[in-house]
Amino acid sequence: MINVTKTFLPDQEKYLQYVREIWDRGYLTNNGPLLQELESKLKEYLNVDHLYFCGNGTIVLQIAIKALEITGDVITTPFSYCATSNAILWEKCTPVFVDIDRSTFNINPDLIEESITPDTTAILATHVYGNPCDVEKIEAIAKKHNLKVIYDAAHAFGVKYKNRSLLSYGDISTCSFHATKVFHTIEGGALISNHPELHEKLSLLRAFGHRGDESYYFAGINGKNSEFHAAMGLCNLPHVGEIIASRKDIFDAYDSRLNWDILERPERSADIEYNYAYYPVVFPSEGVMKKVMEDLAENEIIPRRYFYPSLNTLPFMPKAIACPVSENIAERVLCLPLYMGLPIEDVERIAAIINKSLLSP
């Protein structure tokens, strides 16, 4: 069976050596030496000032909202994983969905201002599939209206925009290090900010809001991660370059074999060094997409409807907001298998099945 993704696993002995060191120290969590080492190496790799390794890619969104003291309405994208909007709801804010750009699938910056009201305090946008949002336009809008900006950069590890880590944009960017990501720590996430005034606050918020046994500052949460997860990150980080290179080869193989007279895909921004996190294709209709899924499943190939449904259509959203572009793309998009080690022969087979399915009645 070929799944949409397959977790990269490093040399087992290297990881077990870290495990033996953890065992010998008896120091399993609470900002241990491996976690501190991983944070240091990630900051160097990404060239960012402040980075906090946390438990997962959702808790970091919640901490970011709390750190920036965001309340009321948060303008956000309907085309993302549900963690983006769920974090807004969990922090007692209201998601205000703005439709996406038809070309990039990111939030359409030209539609943001018309959704701003006196209750709006922030913009939370997703770099969809690792493709940068229009960060310049969003920053200009935020400054004009005194709004905070958070980027859900779950897909964007290793991406550079204009020779700068994409994770360095906004007031805070968050990243996911889930096992399915380009870089992973099994479970994990990170908060990234270049604002020195947030350094202490972010550090405290992920550790219950206190330091030591007696110094309590505010109501934080348990956003910490363990030495075992940090060890996996230390094993995987040196391989990121070869992982991205392998994914690019697979990406290029799909590019050269799929029928682009019928299929569509999002446009990538200019001035980008990409990480090839996902391979999305858009079909002429939902019916055609489902037929292709059936044909692939018959050959034990499992793609993913990523993202579906459009988040503005979820039944528990407090405001009903139409987002026709997002709703349309969400019905027709499919992410194809993409991971290091996927044989090019399998890419050829997947593309052939799709192309045949597209042309059959």
UniProtKB/TrEMBL annotation:
Positions of modified residues (N6-(pyridoxal phosphate)lysine): K181
Active site as annotated? K181
Q: Name one GO biological process term.
A: polysaccharide biosynthetic process
Keyword match Glycosyltransferase: no
Enumerate the UniProt keywords alphabetically. Aminotransferase, Pyridoxal phosphate, Transferase
Residues annotated as coiled-coil are none
Question: Does this UniProt record's set of keywords contain Transcription regulation?
Answer: no
- This protein's superkingdom? Bacteria
Molecular function GO terms recorded? pyridoxal phosphate binding; transaminase activity
Please give the family membership noted in the entry. Answer: Belongs to the DegT/DnrJ/EryC1 family.
Q: What is this protein called?
A: DegT/DnrJ/EryC1/StrS family aminotransferase
